[in-house]
Amino acid sequence: MTEATALADSAAPSAEVLPAGSPPPVILMRGIRREYRMGGRGHRQAKGEDAVVVRALRGVDFSASAGEFVSVMGPSGSGKSTLMNILGCLDKPSAGAYSLDGIETSQSDSDTFAYIRNRKIGFVFQSFNLLARTTALENVELPLFYRRPGKPEKPYSARERRDRAKAALREVGLEKRMDHYPSQLSGGQQQRVAIARAMVGDPAFILADEPTGNLDSEMSLEIMGLFQQLNGQGKTIIMVTHEPEFAAYTKRIITLRDGMLVSDIAGEGKNAQEELARWKKDNALLNGKTPGGGAEAGEPGTDEPGTDEPGTGEPKEAA
Question: Residues 272, 66, 235, 80: is their CA dihedral positive or negative?
Fold first, then answer.
């Protein structure tokens, strides 16, 4: 037994036993290890005595059932980005097994990875990653446009793509912003477009990487409220974050340290909509306004005064 295997075996939590008759988890990881070999005569993946082995993940066991809302936390260098890349089928583990919605991914080829990313995972990024020269509606359509037909599935027609994209934008409260370009949208609205794009293909789960990282407090609470709303409808969400205050809105928190899963606890389940209402009330009092005396600032999908400036997550200054 190698040192790496011994470390993984000693660090990995015992396998979870599911009750009889339980549906299989959407995500099932067992003994996930990821090692990088660096150095040694300029080779990208060096071998032999000159190689320096970086063990990013050391035997991680993790599963998530349909309808869970899980946050992944850990300090810099803990392995959470590596875990996110493997969850998103952007990288393969060095050892271990990862089953996603019944598909074993660990030994999949690039074509299978592309299929899984397009159909099984909805990605939400910190920087939104919207195409600047396409409208909100066109951005949301893109995953369906690039979807290759496969048995027994048929490709979507142009009308079907458009209808599904419109439905997704309505679900995130942007029915009045469908024809707007990203530069005409606030930071919070751009993230809503990104969430609609993640949902449009009805993926097995949504993978969100620091989704509030580029937003102010108000917009962050709106996005967390939207995630909670979607989770209440049965969507499975995995959110990577380094901020405990936002992890508190999820139902479950796992923590990584030194490449190992060291904690798996229930989240506080705080209500983001209630926190947002409290934030608006406190902000109104600080600015000398009467709570409830007019349209609330930053209300999504409206043109009311107080809506945050296009292209930012910052609220307008009071006149």
Answer: positive
